[in-house]
TrEMBL record:
The organism's place on the tree of life at top rank: Eukaryota
Similarity annotation: Belongs to the thiolase-like superfamily. Chalcone/stilbene synthases family.
Assigned keywords, A-Z: Acyltransferase, Transferase
PANTHER family: HYDROXYMETHYLGLUTARYL-COA SYNTHASE, TYPE III POLYKETIDE SYNTHASE A
CDD domains: CHS_like
UniProt-recorded name of the protein: Uncharacterized protein
Length: 406
């Protein structure tokens, strides 16, 4: 058997544009309680969920509608076909806008795009939503498309990993790669389906208190076809599935959409997997200086799956909230938008006001991005930030208007 070399060389891969688009509505913790009381009786399980909802640490969850949106005020929970209609009408425009922002920042032309790699876990139409995004952007040439399913909250980094491997293939062919990576999630329309399960099964299901809506995008480039100033250089990655944990984190298909399975063991399972993944990345990425061997030598872009995942990772890695400042900020202001969240965290991390609350020693040049998904899977990616960039992170939330609201 030929030995496998897991060492990353100089990849020549860079993120050259980032775009994030949240919808214009926010759901406060009180809103979930109001919606619950409209349609469901007070039961021990429902009361427990509402109690947890008050202490998630989330100030607002970004949403495509208010609690008065017709979709969540029907007599019954919306069907998959209704959810699909809303995904196309209200979600795809968010993805197009996020992609436009990333493309604009990258300063490439639409005709330069060679691939589109996308993900969602809140829609499963065929053809996928990526076709609609390509059409909405006005991309005329044939591009290679990949739509990832089954990766849940780790989807953003899974997309980046997939795009990176595609880009390396183009490099081997001595061809340029300009890859549009897109993540789109509409989680809040699933609230009535989740409430139904809480009410009928008397289960404590915390998804309605955590999840939100978002679209995000990045442009990944190889080093062929002209220099573009990087935002982040991609140095290497690690993907692993933790054996025996598949039943702890799931997103199961259902006639009324998808049902979140999130056991109380998930934070411990996820957080205790981080040290080994981090150690393996350090060993496989020679471009990380040997002087940087501790977790607090890095800034961390951690997917904010919940408050206990953030605090648990702090404890496991002996880092501070300041290392996770962009993750906390995104979590508190927008909630957990599944796969779309990690690009939002990376976008937030480069904002100048985030530098003001960096840990002792200031913002780190090297960044570890990490997310957890069904499996339980762990995605980790080592990045180098361009600290000399003068580009400003984009505005995340559009101004209020009447488009696609009612």
């Amino acid at each position: 058997m030929v030995p496998v070399d897991n060492t990353f060389g100089e990849l020549g891969l860079s993120i050259i544009g980032v775009g994030v688009q949240y919808p214009r509505f926010n759901l406060a913790p009180d809103d979930l309680e109001t919606l619950s009381k409209r349609f469901y009786a007070s039961t021990p399980s429902m009361n427990k969920v509402l109690s947890i909802n008050r202490f998630t640490g989330i100030e607002n969850r970004s949403s495509i509608g208010t609690i008065d949106h017709p979709l969540v005020n029907q007599e019954t929970a919306p069907s998959v076909s209704q959810l699909h209609e809303v995904f196309v009408e209200d979600g795809v425009p968010l993805a197009i806008t996020a992609a436009q922002k990333a493309i604009e920042e990258s300063r490439i032309r639409l005709s330069d795009i060679t691939h589109v790699v996308s993900t969602t876990c809140t829609n499963n139409a065929n053809p996928g939503f990526d076709n609609l995004v390509v059409a909405g952007l006005g991309i005329k040439q044939q591009v290679e498309k990949v739509l990832l399913q089954g990766v849940g909250c780790s989807g953003g980094l899974a997309v980046l990993r997939t795009a990176s491997n595609l880009a390396l293939g183009r490099t081997a062919q001595r061809k340029p790669a300009r890859i549009l990576c897109v993540a789109l999630e509409l989680c809040t329309p699933l609230v009535r389906s989740e409430f139904d399960s809480i009410n009928e099964l008397q289960e404590v299901r915390i998804g309605p208190a955590l999840f939100s809506d978002c679209a995000s995008a990045v442009i990944l480039s190889n080093d062929i076809g002209g220099y573009v100033e990087p935002i982040y250089d991609v140095l290497g990655w690690d993907h692993r599935v933790i054996p025996g944990t598949a039943e702890h984190l799931r997103f199961n298909s259902d006639p009324l959409g998808w049902k979140v399975v999130l056991t109380p063991d998930v934070p411990k399972i996820a957080c205790t997997a981080v040290p080994e993944a981090f150690s393996d990345i350090l060993a496989s990425v020679p471009s990380i200086p040997r002087s940087l061997q501790k977790a607090d030598d890095f800034d961390w872009a951690l997917h904010p799956g919940g408050a206990t995942i953030l605090t648990g990772t702090e404890k496991e890695m002996n880092i501070t909230p300041y290392h996770l400042r962009a993750s906390y900020d995104t979590y508190m202001k927008h909630g957990n938008s599944s796969s779309a969240t990690i690009f939002s965290v990376l976008n937030r991390l480069r904002a100048k006001d985030m530098d003001a609350v960096a840990p002792s020693g200031g913002p780190r040049e090297f960044v570890m991005a990490c997310a957890f998904g069904p499996g339980v899977s762990v995605e980790m990616c080592a990045l180098r930030r361009n600290q000399n960039s003068q580009r400003v992170a984009d505005c995340l939330t559009p101004p209020l208007d009447d488009h696609n609201l009612d």
